[in-house]
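Input.
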Amino acid sequence: MNNDNALNANVGLKLRGLRLQRNIKQADAAKDLGVSPAYLNLIEKGKRVMPFPLLWKALRYFEQDPEQFMSTLGEGRVDEALAKLLDEPLLKSLDIDSESLQSLSAEPKLAGTVAALFNLYKNTRTQLENVLAQLNVEERTRTQGSTSGLGSTPGVRFDYSPFDEVSDFLEKHRNYFPELEEQAEGLRRDFRLEQQLTSSNIIRMLEERFDFKVQIERAASGSSVVRRLDLDTRTLTLSPDLTEQPLKFQVAASIGLMVMDREKLVERILGAGRMRHGETERLIKVNLANYFAGALMLPYGEFFKEVQRTRYDVELLSNIFGTTYETVAHRICNLSDPKRQGLPFHFLRADIAGNISKRYSGTGIRFASGGGSCAKWAVHLAFLNPSQITRQYSIMPDGTTYFCFAKVQLQPIEGSIVKGTAYSIGLGTHAENAKYLAYGLPTNDLRKDAIPSGISCRFCERTDCNQRAAASYRFAFAFDEYTKKDCFFSPLLVHEKEKAERNGNAEPDGNGTEASEKHDSLDRGARRRKVHEN
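Output.
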């Protein structure tokens, strides 16, 4: 049946294309073929079977060879301009396939219009991104020119993304949501859960309390979906590639979504405040669902007690509660209950290229927008020793000091890290808190032991960094071809610039010797003669 429908659709599209190529109106073609315009319209749309006598008549009408026409029915020719769009990421996300584009190809004017509009959209978006980037640079240069490092607050943020808005929301609430803690504690109590949960425990909770069924199913080729919650069929579909620890987290996060929907927690937590971006509220909901998952697997009271006992030993806590290093690191940043308050931490997750995919500031440290950061930070250096905890003190340009530690978390697929993921998970707190940590480093001279670092190259005030990747907006970009610094992007200081100008103003004599050097040598000769005469 499907093959018959496809054949009918193909015949109709081919005939429609022939009619449009000859600029024949549908009503005129229907009259000449002896059928009604409505019937021909259904044939062209593939909704009616075309009788062979009528097909032969139509082929004679359009001056087509029947054998050649029939041989091309299996070909799915797509307009060239439209075919190029199949590789566009946007169309992939909209799930537009070649069959859909093939139907458009039967409308030459429409096909050209769609392709032109899409290319116009791409060009406009590129131009808009360039304008916003330039406005952001100018605004930050203006608003941060008179302020310093971490304490500065940017003015109008043209590059303020939904992810930035979510980070600000979490920091505003100190990454602590008692409503979610209570809901998680209630479920643990009702199901009498042990300290360390298994995926079976959480799946049983999902099935019995929320009447959902769980099925394991591999995603379609090219898809990266590992979890799909279908509220209509009350089904949670999970990828078979999920191992025990991430499996627990995904089921727990799904329960968090259902709890929030049932209790209308997102509306209660957000209150009457309006978000700048339409996507922000959904992103916040995802973050709150993940928060709930952490609260369910790492109950606040028990977790806080173990954190104190182990002195924030993230690896040991991961073993005690049977979860990932990253989940424990996240949960450590939630300990803001006024009655049981933990140390303040900032959190970073970076990949091997230095991209920051998650960040949270509980210490007041400012992160640069756009995801970049300082190459001197422990979270990046951890990739040099992926099997160890990388620890360091760091000092910012304004003198603020931190103690940071990071560990690489590898998740290979089929034994390949390239196919899987490699992230560095970094935590940091104020330097004076290092003595409370199992990973703390001894120091007799913090200022000497701390690594000079900054926020990011673009906004760093340091003049002596040997690993700059870009010039800082805080300095006028200037260089001197006669003066080599340890890094090309390091700013040229005033006293260095004065020397460069003196070198540039020196005039060489006929032998190529600079006049200043020649005069200096003459002076030295005169002084020697004077000493000899005396």
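The radius of gyration is 34 Å.
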